[in-house]
Amino acid sequence: MAKSAIGFSPGHISGYFRRVDGDGPDTTGSCGGGIVIDKGVHAVVTPADTTTVSICVEHNPGEETCIAYSSPPIEYALKNLGVTAAVKTVTSLPPGAGFGLSAAALLATLAAANALFETGLTDNAIARLAHLSELEYQTGLGDVAACTGGGIVCRNHPGITADIIRMKGDGVCISALSFGGLNTADVITSPVQMARVKEAYAAGCAESPEEFFRTARTFAEKSGMIPDEIRPILQACDDKGIPASMTMLGKGVFALGDISFSVLSEYGIPLELHVAEEGFRLIDVIK
Question: Domain with 140 in it: what CATH number?
Fold first, then answer.
């Protein structure tokens, strides 16, 4: 057996969504649209007698802080895979702030574990197990499906087997600024909030990045989920004619175009992001 394996998955910023409760994991999740981003999660997986998980954030290259030492979704997924391992996930994005990192961590971990333990799962099977773990722990609904590929995505059906329309994002620049997270489970299990989300949701796929942002912003406004903290930033983007909306589900703003970075910089230190070209994948197997 190899000594370790490394997997990677891009993150995903959801712009609008609608929860769908089906009769199983293949028909349960969400419809909606979002952007798969080039930054995400690396996972290093090493054989071990018992499963352990370290969740780490990279502040600067080579400078990491581990913020948690367990992950029930990852532990659940590895148990279902029938393996035990030491897992270390690393991201440069703020956790719990609407960047789809729970899904990305699962996909990166499972891509590495699948290669390391030679379990023979297809990419579709990896995604299905990651989606099942997200549903089990209420950490997400549609991020796994989005992160099976790149682009600006539109999901008209729930689950990971449904067709996904992906718009390429060559040359598209995105800026994002986060002020912390929202508890995903609290939101997606709230009947009141999900009723508002259902009312705000509009089916259909955007034909341009600008149209995607308009749809996302309309949804954010109608759903009533925009935190007061980010209102001034959205207004500043509006004043400059910059398409912008709320990161779902987090206390943050993401905005379109090169100028957006300087506008968001007036309120903090924004992230510069681009649209990912591809989804989760194995990076390396170390013999």
Answer: 3.30.230.120
Domain that holds residue 145: 1-287
For 63, the 3-state DSSP assignment is: strand
pLDDT in tens, 186-234: 788 888 888 888 899 988 899 999 999 999 999 999 999 999 999 999 9
Burial zone of 74 (CB within 10 Å; 0-12 exposed, 13-18 middle, 19+ buried): buried
Nearest Cα residue to 45 out of 92, 106, 88, 103: 88
Tell me how far apart the alpha carbons of residues 57 and 178 are, in angstroms, rounded to a whole number. Answer: 15
As for how many domains the chain has, the answer is 1
- Per-residue CA distances from 27 to 23, 136, 145, 159, 236 (Å): 6, 14, 12, 5, 40
The overall pTM is greater than 0.90: yes
Q: Which residue in this structure is represented by tokens 């090169």?
A: 258
- Neighbouring C-alpha atoms within 13 Å toward the C-beta of 97: 17
CA distance 156 to 159: 10
Residues 6+ apart with CB under 8 A from 42: 6, 7, 8, 89, 90, 91, 108, 283
Q: DSSP 3-state assignment of 42?
A: strand
Mutual orientation of helices 101-116 and 72-81 as an angle, nearest 10°? 30
Read off the pLDDT of residues 171-195 as tens digits, 9 standing for 90 and up: 999 999 999 877 777 788 888 888 8
In DSSP terms, 274 is beta-bridged to 173
